[in-house]
Here is the input.
Amino acid sequence: MKYDIAIIGGGPAGYTAAERAAAGGLKTVIFEKKAIGGVCLNEGCIPTKTLLYSAKLLDHAKSAAKYGISVPDGISFNLEKIIDRKDKVVKKLTGGVKMTVQSYGAELIEKEAVIAGESDGLIQILAGGGIYEVTYLLVCTGSDTVVPPIKGLSEVDYWTSKEALEMTVLPKSLAIIGGGVIGMEFASFFNSMGVKVSVIEMMPEILGAMDKETSAMLRTEYQERGVDFQLNSKVTEVSPSGVTIEKAGKSVLIEAEKILVSAGRKANLSQVGLDKLNVELARNGVKVDEHMLTSHPHVYACGDITGHSMLAHTAIRESEVALNHILGVEDRMNYNCVPGVVYTNPELAGVGKTEEELKAAGISYHIQKLPMAYSGRFVAENETGNGLCKLILDDEDRIIGCHLLGNPASEIIIVAGLAVQHGYTVEEFQKTVFPHPTVGEIYHETFFA
Here is the structure.
């Protein structure tokens, strides 16, 4: 069986590539050994955000009186129905993706695929007892959860994000090892559900490489809601009693009924057979150029397997770049304008450079920022909490970074992303007309700050 292109992995990068390739006239086959949609759709982005939306509605209900709304029978939730709805959403979307891929004419093989080698200029792939010969190969095998070698971890029934999404009973208390995006989103959900949450982070601040000012504001918000943060803390041991940390030279036990390990993800390089094609690896994944091309002239890699930007929307864009290169369309991957979002309540989002990056590189910059309360729509809809719009500008007043705290940061960060992508100056952006009242008007207000 011969094809123009084979795609291994049916996550966001894989299914997007299959659709684009088939639409572009390439005879396409895509392999997915688990479920189409990958980790994002089945075990990550979508189920997590579905749960978080239920939690956000619960938060709104709790504060309804501030908006003049009474809830006569009290506020409660049904965890079983929340989980059932999450499963229903995932099933609906995976079915939709599968139908869309096949509607373009791509062949979907729901079997594990392994690279066997190369013969007569064609790459050979084994799957389900069949041999598939292809001219081009796109590898999108994603990533796996990192489980650190912590003393006692193998002896307790801990969660990763996968098990946390499958839970049917809420624990009374939860210790989250890792204060990154995934850890904070789960902290947000379980805190809203009434669980006593502790977040343990090795670094001085949560959320890794994201803007530290807005990250600290988000942490303060959740501290006020009862979440316990242990920063600059090294986990030394876990036990049925909880997590033992080392902090400031002292050993402290963080008591918890359940432990969630959220220490990051690593590129899934094993078992796919990249060594059969002598594909060069980088420190954290497959080495690729700006066209997503590997060291092999007919092999591309997209998504988490590159180890560069482990975000679903990055993976989608990478697959578009790879397909365009195969089809002879000029395109290059630009990571400078990829937004990052934390879907807590309030949301946090950022795009472009951070102050920390620029200081470390010795690059001159200046900042314009305003509280989100300068947006009338934000004030009308956010009786509790505040937020921040922070723009980072270079010496020519070009927008090189933006960081937002406050709902709906996830929806309006793209406005700043376009500014970063196209190199807009403040003067150019000031001429944009924002509808009134919208939260997005905060940009316009900040430009004149």
